């Protein structure tokens, strides 16, 4: 696999120092990504390069901040993102908080509505309708999962496709699946996976890819995107008799099955590129929060065989938020350019 590897970039410590020396998202003169660093966790022989999603996401957010400044200067308007949270799940609250913080850092206006766990479906639909009609809101995100008594698909379908920055509307997913059509928005996590591959110099054309998981929000759109880049894609799901056998043939593996460390190191074809979407909390008495996050891939084992791999945390997660900002900026530019849509 041809990869543009940069193993001689600054050390992590140097990079941290440099980041601290300037405001976090001030447009840098050179917004180059230093995608890959040597994997510290793996033995020296055959050590995989780490695809540094945190760093790449930071580069993208800096690019976005510069574009927002230019948009504001030209139009007097800032992109606006509305986040709707129903209930009080701890993880959802954390995600929503980090999305709002990311919005503020790039100069977006952020809107938010928090509804109680027992809010009715109609109340959620009313909030969506209000944001659909608000010209200062260019993107709408309804945090998932919603409480059981609310029909998730009905709520997602109610989001105006012009503001569907999550890319969850069936029309946006459908367009992704059809040759010759382009969706208005591509879902953030799948788009982030592809951006990581692209910015790491991974060639997809003619390669074999395995996607573990087929959910509407991750596995399915990732598989469609990889196929659009001319990879030959196999999707693995809970009824696949031998997941390992499929993964062993893949030059590119995307793991999104929601099973901690299910994809074992010895499933990885030597030299393959591994994108680990999984976010799983596992109890760990030694960790500060009492748990630590692991991916859907056995990271240590995979490091010994992969040519490059994303870590968890610090891989796909930060890219999801960067792509949300990117989608919102794109939507704002379209909507501000044509206010009568
Ligand atoms: N980093 C990020 O930004 C994000 C991370 N995530 C993480 O990604 C992971 C996937 O999320 P999501 O797609 O929402 O999860 P879902 O639970 O919706 O889907 C999981 C998929 O994996 C498949 N699967 C489950 N068990 C197995 C198994 N034993 N073997 C093979 N396939 C299996 C399921 O198959 P079937 O269809 O047959 O049930 C399903 O298609 C989770 O860890 C989640 O936390 C999710 C969103 C964003
Ligand atoms: N409408 C909707 N859109 C979503 O995009 C959406 C959603 N609902 N519901 C939940 C999932 C999950 N998700 C993540 C986003 C960022 C990180 C992230 O930044 N993770 C950090 C770690 C954060 C930590 O330390 O807890 C990392 O991987 O480095 C993870 C997961 C978006 N989702
Ligand atoms: Mg989707």
Describe this structure in words.
The chain is α/β, with parallel strands linked by helices and 341 residues long. The protein has 2 domains: 35-54 and 189-320, Rossmann fold (3-Layer(aba) Sandwich), CATH 3.40.50; 78-185 and 326-332, Rossmann fold. The chain is 39% helix and 15% strand. The protein is built from 11 helices and 12 strands. The strands form 3 sheets. Strands 1-2-12-9-8-6-7 form a 7-stranded mixed sheet. Mean pLDDT is 89; it is low at 1-23 and 28-45. Bound molecules: NADPH dihydro-nicotinamide-adenine-dinucleotide phosphate, 5,10-Methenyltetrahydrofolate and magnesium ion.
Strands, helices and their partners?
Elements: H1 12-21, E1 36-38, E2 49-51, H2 53-75, E3 80-86, H3 90-106, E4 109-115, H4 121-133, E5 139-142, H5 152-158, H6 170-177, H7 188-199, E6 208-212, H8 219-228, E7 232-236, H9 243-248, E8 252-255, E9 273-276, E10 280-283, E11 291-294, H10 299-303, E12 308-309, H11 316-337
Parallel strand pairs: 2-12, 3-4, 3-5, 6-7, 6-8, 8-9, 9-12
Antiparallel strand pairs: 1-2, 10-11
Helix pairs in contact: 2-11, 3-11, 7-8, 7-11
Looking at this protein, list some descriptive labels.
341 residues, seven-stranded mixed β-sheet, three-stranded parallel β-sheet, 12 strands, binds NADPH dihydro-nicotinamide-adenine-dinucleotide phosphate, binds magnesium ion
